[in-house]
Records
---
Amino acid sequence: MRKFIIAVSTLVFACTGSGPSNEKSTKVEDLLSKMTLEEKVGQLNFLIGDGFNTGPTLMTRESNNFDVLVKEGKITGLFNVYGAKYTARLQKIAVEQSRLKIPLLFGADVIHGFKTVAPIPLAEAASWDLAEIERSAQVAAEESSAVGINWTFAPMVDVCRDPRWGRVLEGAGEDPFLASRIAEARVRGFQGKSLADARTIAACVKHFAAYGAPLAGRDYTEVDMSERQLREVYLPPYEAAIKQGAATVMNAFNDFNGIPATANKFLLQQVLRKEWKFNGVVVSDWQSIGELIPHGIAADSAQAAQLAMDASVDVDMMANVYASQLIRLIQAGSIKQSQLDDAVRRVLQLKFDLGLFDDPYRYSNEEREKKEMRTDAQVNSALSMAKKSIVLLKNENELLPFSKDESTLAVIGPLANAPAEMNGSWSFFGEPQHAVSILDGIRKKVSPKTSVLFAEGCNLYDDATDKFAQAKAIAQRASKLIVVLGESAVMNGEGASRSSIGLPGVQLDLLKALAETKKPLVVVLVSGRPLTLEWVDQHMPAILETWTLGSEAGNAVAEVLFGDYNPSGKLPITFPRNEGQIPIYYSHKHGGRPYEGDYQDPLNVRIYKSKYRDVRNEPLYPFGYGLSYTKFEYSNLIIDKEKMSTDESVEVSVTVKNVGKVAGEEVVQWYIRDWVGSVTRPVKELKGFEKILLQPGESKTVKLNITSEVLSFYRADMSWGVEPGKFSVMVGTNSANVLAKDFVLN
Ligand code: NOJ
């Protein structure tokens, strides 16, 4: 039996030791002592290469000039370029022609796989499978480290409770505990045991901080939140990743409580450097130092440079502000020499840690580039990750799985035959020809006698309904329908917020038209965020959320549709009924006037309770929700003591039984409630989970050990610790369906 046991404490970390060192290295000091002011500033200047663009190009690109810049020591490295030959050629210039022979960093947005495209991070989070997620990051590191890349701008660990925000796809959802465990797994996957290992790359935790909470869900805009909310909800995954040894951090674009993150001393100096003792590189986000001017906090580039340096941002990505301003500011005494030296020291240390001074070509390996790209093992990992990421949202009368021997299946929808779309938002390294469409996956899976009909049905966005008739015609000929709907990759990701998050264009109308055929129908959703699906849920018998699954999407979806894999994914984020409910999340506060009615009373009656007049309070699908082709029964919740003192722990156990007919994996979820505190506490908080495989009829006892640390929180005075009183421990198959027991902390 496979199982993953999750440590329950958020604050007890195991450091891999591969992160930045806090000790001064003599090699670094030696090199630093030989550097001119210009050479030091060069080490802080970081440009995109001439591959492709991932941001607004508001500065003059130096693309024809990289050789000269490298030779003159004016850049620390390039990003979003790759190729063993390409990177080796530039490394050669750096280590043979530049005065101090300092090798280059090659960074890249390897966010969900490289040539083997993995599911988007939100999808991976839905697997709740830490070993699989770690392996996925490892595959990305194996492939990208062969082509010169030594630094990935991942993991993104921004908690997000607003699915309008386009970048919700890049994180692990709404919950700090789940997001923290996933952040650790991703750092372990990228960095392995040693950064100097040629098959690992440096991780970059981003976007520090609270980038996932922009006002109204609109990318790049302001964030205004209490320090309590920041520390309780948004900071834990960054801290977990850093304690796991993440080598670098990227600051966020957003204004945080009136001071943009790029210049925010509270975030960068106080929390990151002082409290967490992070001594690695902080890189700005694309041009974010320059953006201190439009933010209205700096009058000009000189002031922008000053503010970012004072906040301890080490590397300037794409703003050209450090390159143009630092020398003058140092000479004028506005920035201290020691500030500059500290920043350069951290960059050099990273290059030493990556082993670049020992062998600058270690990541530019033509043989590995040929042999270790999309190997069977790597593609199999992507398939395994993809199928575990799928969430079964509805399955009335066990409509799924379909038989492979069905005589005629109709596969309909604008995303059914769209291989390039399967690669998702951050997949410019992946090749569209490697991605398996859902239609192809189905065709490969069914018996040779099954005829598979296909119609696009409609376009992704526009209002045209002219393709409906053909879709209806093929639906009439089929015994069952598979309707593939959702968002294209450009509808989510950076700069792709949406104000309404339903199915775009006329896709819902297409679905309604197909429903008129009364044929058994499964809706297969492709999306980078939760969608609003009330009509679909009310009227369609079966729904699969497949997110955006990467190169192996079609194969993974087919395995689930035809029962070769029993779905085990659970939502890492709440699905609202409509946009007006946003932000909506399971770990909300109870409040003084909660509405706990049954909604039998008319919605428009005024009652002085916390509710809407036009929609229920509850989401459509809660956090942690996901069905299986089998059923799990929870019983026998036992607590070993009803009273504990702060130096004791409580052990709780529950029996989970597979009472269905097929084997299946269940994610057993543990939640805690602290009933009375010096501050109000959430109605539930995830504190542990375990993914178990059970054969039909098999049962297993799952345990949670509750220590004081598990019950600790930021008290009224912001100190971390416990308060005595009544607690509930809850366990269940999702956040809304739990068994509970109480105990008292003395
Ligand atoms: C801006 C994005 O916010 C960041 O995540 C990314 O790494 C950089 N662009 C570089 O492409």
---
Amino acid sequence: MEFESILLPGVDAKRPFIIAGPCSAETEEQVMETARELSARGVKMFRAGIWKPRTKPGGFEGVGVKGLPWLKRVQEELGMYTAVEVATAGHVREALSHNVDILWIGARTSANPFAVQEIADALEGIDIPVFIKNPVNPDLDLWIGAIERVYNAGIRRIAAIHRGFSTSDKKIYRNLPQWHLPIELHRQLPNLPLICDPSHIGGKRELIAPLCQQAMDLNYDGLIVESHCNPDKAWSDAAQQVTPAVLDFILNTLVIRDMTQSTESLTALRRQIDELDDSLLELLAKRMRVSNEIGVYKKEHNMPILQEQRYDEILKTRIAQAEKMDMDGEFMKTVLVAIHEESVRHQMIIME
Ligand code: PEP
Ligand code: MN
């Protein structure tokens, strides 16, 4: 696939380009006030959700078409470009008939090939930039598939938005970044612009700045950030929205390194190492928990902690497996002995 530049006339080509605006358009006043404050700080592209996909019914599902004339005011009075999320062919038609400048496909929609195809069919013969968020699940092919469907409809101005991946583990992030997936997307489609959405990855204000910086260090082209004139009172995603003034501050503190190819790859590889270490730690902690349960079982059944035959079997099989996987047997032995020692220590505490 060969993509064309998504930069609209008057938008600075300098990294990062910024799309900002509220999660949702709520009222005409909120839209105009937020847009005015953003425009005064040099933001040229204004986002606002008109149709909101909500996890449960009964939440605020967006103002619908009545919000589109508000966006027209943003274009006409402030000279900004506008971007909305489309999830159906009907949304595409409404957005186009109100001259919206940019469309994006949300994460729940890009996970559904039927929905993406319906949108792609509605885009046939139209020339408009379309940004495609990663699907909620960490499936790179599904993301690429969504991009291909839109590309096959004739759209050439495409960008990918990385907004993280859904997980039941909501400890730090609302949506796990899994940086290796957008990195791999970039490896496969090097001329596809990549935009980071720190708002939906982080889910909280404090994470916007570090996530923006990480995206810049990974050489992303742009950022899409939720910004609201009164974030605490936002009707959706209040915890992750920042005022235009805070956004401006965050953007001004970003360090944009002019990276050569080699440092870019190094940062990308290090990011992969970070993710892998995370998984290793998770697995180790899980193994420790299971070993503790075994300790409880042994106590209840009056069994000794050290089961030599079992230990011997673990060492032999794992070392052989490691060697097959091109790892040194001695190294594997050191790791296994350390893990075993720690498990025994835990089980001894349990026995006390
Ligand atoms: C949004 O951008 O407001 C949105 C609903 O995002 P996502 O599709 O990433 O959840
Ligand atoms: Mn949102």
